[in-house]
Amino acid sequence: MAQLKINGRACDPENKFCRSISMAARSGRLLEILDDLELRVESMREAAISIEQEKESLLELIQSVQSSQEMRNISDGEREELNLTANRLLDRTLTVNISLEIIRSPQQEEFLGKATALIDEIANQILKDLSSAKDRLMAMHNACTSEALPGPVDQKFQAIMIGCALEDQKKLKRRLETLIRNVSNADKSIRLLDQQKEKPTINSHPL
């Protein structure tokens, strides 16, 4: 399309649109700045998520040390000293607070509430029926992945998860993984205690 150049301006006579070349250059530079800032914003959010995940992992590890079988096999004095250290680490970890707001639609808020309620329901039943709770948690976890995993898939939970925001889906999946690990550790502890009870007692008789 033919254009007229008047005093350094590129003009379109048909659309009657005229913009200075310097204005276009400034607009391009501003767009580049905003693109760069968008990358930094996403990088900041990813760093915040990483710190949040590290906090969850540290809390879980500290608590697993406190409830481990090794803790039961040491003297009371040593256990008390180690628990003091573990509690100090827990307190310091809890001082780190990451606030990452997730933008959700009203529908996503509703689905998040439903998914959280279902997980809470099973978490409250763990002590009552460990085996059943683990099976349900595994079926719900299988609903959170596209991979073909062994075991059943909770179709109802899967439909709810699809309606959640992507970041909420990741957080809910991490929570399920934490609960599954806790249930597995509790199951191992119970088995160890059962095995210790089954061991025969050897009575020593003086000669």
UniProtKB/TrEMBL annotation:
Gene3D superfamilies reported in the protein's UniProt record: 1.20.58.890
GO biological process: protein stabilization
MF terms (GO), sorted A to Z: adenyl-nucleotide exchange factor activity; protein-folding chaperone binding
Superkingdom per UniProt: Eukaryota
Key word Transport present: no
Keyword Coiled coil: yes
InterPro entries: BAG2, BAG_domain
Positions of the BAG domain: 114-191
Coiled coil, from the record: 34-61
Keywords associated with the record: Coiled coil
Annotated protein name in UniProt: BCL2 associated athanogene 2
